[in-house]
Design goal:
about 15% strand, alpha/beta, elongated, single chain, two-stranded antiparallel sheet
């Protein structure tokens, strides 16, 4: 019936119910719940007209209809409180994103410039908080959002801790590796350059350089990756090279050239890295790279110039 918009019929139970009372009228509201139209069922059809009219005019049903009407209005136009909460949440999200962008840009800047991220002390009493945090404070002078976040955010939500910095670097590194991997795949072939050296802690590390031609620009690109050296024998060095390429999602079988120094462990024709590499990738031709040849010539020349030899010897001692 059109006059009873709240009326609903269940085919399975062959009974009528009140939609408004079932969903919008609870016992705590202080009105009488009619079980026939809520929890039980109404199927006394010969008394339907009188019963439906009586329920339609009851106070509980009127209250339930008002609740239903308000719900439909909120669904159509949106609740003012909900809208305010939603707008507030959206504004907070935008502020957080703006602040995180400043954090990432600061980290990216210091990394690209090759300068130290952190200072000796980073507590508030320190006069120098390190390059990263000092740069972030410079940005805050011109950006109210960054200034507010640095001043009001709790310490675990400022994203300036060194562990967080390392995590962000890992994310950026993964993004760069993904881009380089795609470029190498588009280039279809590449050459690998490898050298071993010691860093400041006197531990051996391997620098792996992938050299490839970018098809779009026609420019030669090089990608450098450092990895710790588990061993300095040919098998360990080869395993490190393969692991690095695999980590960067670069197919080793697309390598067409390998370039090392003249050390026997690298250039040996029987058990050197280059020979073992070529057994797996036959087209990867070995070349003793020219920069190392030039370096050997310069070192030999310096040894024969007493003033230069003395200068570098003194410098090495210092």
């Amino acid at each position: 019936m059109d006059q009873y918009s709240w009326l609903e019929y269940s085919v399975a139970k062959d009974a009528a119910f009140c939609f408004a009372c079932r969903h919008f009228l609870k016992r705590g509201h202080g009105f009488h719940l009619e079980p026939a139209f809520t929890s039980n069922r109404f199927n006394n059809w010969w008394k339907a007209s009188a019963s439906l009219n009586s329920h339609h005019e009851s106070m509980g049903q009127v209250f339930a209809m008002e609740g239903w009407s308000e719900f439909k209005q909120k669904e159509t136009s949106g609740s003012k409180i909900a809208n305010m909460l939603d707008k507030g949440h959206s504004a907070l999200v935008m502020e957080n994103r703006k602040y995180m962008k400043a954090v990432m840009e600061s980290l990216g800047f210091t990394a690209c410039q090759g300068i130290a991220q952190r200072g000796n002390r980073e507590d508030e009493q320190s006069h120098n908080l390190g390059n990263f945090r000092e740069l972030l404070h410079v940005i805050a002078k011109f950006d109210p959002t960054v200034d507010k976040k640095l001043a009001t955010n709790p310490s675990n939500a400022k994203y300036t801790h060194h562990d967080i910095q390392n995590e962000m670097f890992a994310v950026m590194a993964e993004m760069i590796r993904k881009k380089i991997s795609d470029e190498v795949r588009d280039a279809e072939c590449f050459a690998v350059l490898v050298d071993e050296s010691k860093y400041i802690s006197k531990k051996e590390q391997i620098s792996v350089i992938v050299r490839y031609l970018q098809p779009e620009s026609g420019e030669v690109h090089e990608f450098l990756h450092f990895t710790a050296a588990d061993g300095l024998d040919s098998d360990s060095l080869l395993a490190s090279i393969k692991h690095t390429l695999s980590q960067c999602n670069i197919d080793i079988h697309r390598c067409v050239g390998q370039c090392y120094d003249g050390a026997s462990v690298m250039s040996g024709c029987n058990n050197g890295v280059q020979e073992k590499f070529r057994k797996e990738v036959p087209q990867a031709i070995y070349i003793h790279y020219h920069a190392h040849r030039l370096n050997l010539v310069l070192v030999d020349c310096v040894h024969n110039v007493s003033a230069a030899a003395e200068f570098f010897e003194t410098l090495q001692m210092l």
